[in-house]
Amino acid sequence: MALPHASMSAAKIPDMIEVSSAAAARPGQSIRSGGISDRGIAWLFITPTILLLLAINIFPLIWTVRMSLTNYKANMGWMKYRFVGIENYVDILTDPDIWDAMQTTARFVFWSISLEVLLGFGLALLINRKFRGHSFWTTVILLPMMLSPAVVGNFWTFLFQPQSGLFNYVVSFFTGIDPASFQMIGDVKLAPWSIVLVDVWMWTPYVMLICLAGLRSIPDYIYEAAEVDRASVWRRFWSVTLPMVMPFLMLAVLFRGIENFKMFDMVNLLTNGGPGSLTETVSITLKRAAFEKWQTGWSSALAIILFLTVFGAANIYIKVLNSVKRR
C-alpha cells in the first residue's frame, strides 16, 4: 500500500522544482499572497510622493512658464488674455528699474554673506575650543536662527525705532551720538545696512554650525604631524585648517546665497523697499508687480528669469565646489 503514495510524492517533485526555479529566476520579486511583488509594493509607496512632487513643483513651474507668455492679469480673470510671446521677457530685461533692483539684491547678498562667513567661521573656531560652558554659549548663539523671520523682522523694527527702540540708545552709549539724530530704517545711508545687520544677526549661527562640522571633521593626527614639524599656529591655520574647512565654507556660501537672493520677508517687514526704492530687492519688485499691479504675466516672466539666474549660478558654483573637493 505504500507504493502508490511513494509514486504520487515522486510525481510532485518536478512541479516543486519548477516552482522553486521560477522563484529563483526572479530575485527581488518574491510573490506575496496578494499577488504583488516587492517591486510593486515599492512603487505603491513611491507613487504618491512622486505625484505630490509633480503637483507642487513641476505643474506650477509649467503653469508659470505658460502665464509668462501672456498678458494675463489675475484681477481680471474674466477677460480673455492674449499670447504675447517673449514680449514680457524683453520688457523686463530692458527695464532699468529691474537692473537697479538686481544691483540692490547683489549688494545685499555680497555684504551679508561676507560678514556671515567671517563671523560664523570665527565663532566656529572659538566654539571648537573646549572651554567651560561652551555648550551653553553654543545654544545661546543658535537662538536667532531658531526664530521665524516674521518674528525677527518685527522685533528689529521695534528696536530700530529712534524714540522707543533700544538700538539707538545702545549706539549712543558707546559713541556718544544723540539717539534721536539717526534712523536705521528711515535713513538713506543706513537703511541697506539695517537689513544686512538683521540678516547677519539671524543667520551667522547657521554658517557657524556648518564651519563647526568642518572643523570637527579634521583628524587630530594632521595637527599632531604639524606640531612635530614645528609648524606655528598661523602656519597650521593656513596649511591645515583653512584648506580642510574650505569645502564647508563654500557650501555655506551656496546655501546662504540662494536664500539671500530670494530674500523677501525680512526686507518687506523692515523697510518694504524704502526709503523710496533704495532697498527694493527683486523679490519686492516681483511682489508689487504680482499683487499690487496685478501684472500676472509680467511677474511670471520675472519669476522665471530669477529661477534661471539662481539655477545657473548655483550649477556653476557647484562645479567649482566639486573641483575644490577633489584637490
Describe the overall structure.
With 327 residues, the chain is mostly helical. It has a single domain (89-325), classed as MetI-like fold (Orthogonal Bundle), CATH 1.10.3720. The chain contains 13 helices and no strands. It has helices spanning 2-24, 38-68, 87-93, 96-128, 134-142, 149-159, 167-175, 191-216, 220-228, 233-261, 265-270, 282-291, 296-325. Helix 4 packs antiparallel against helix 10 (233-261). It starts with a helix and ends with a helix. Mean pLDDT is 85; it is low at 1-14 and 16-30.
Q: So what's the CATH class?
A: Mainly Alpha
Q: Show unreliable segments.
A: 1-14, 16-30
- Tell me the name of the CATH homologous superfamily: MetI-like
**What's the total count of β strands?**
0
Broad shape: globular
Class per helix and strand makeup? mainly alpha
Instruction: For the record, give the distance between the C-alpha atoms at the N and C termini, rounded to a whole number.
Output: 81 Å
How much helical structure, as a percent, in the residues?
A: over 70%
Rg of Cα set? 30 Å
Q: Into how many domains do the coordinates divide?
A: 1
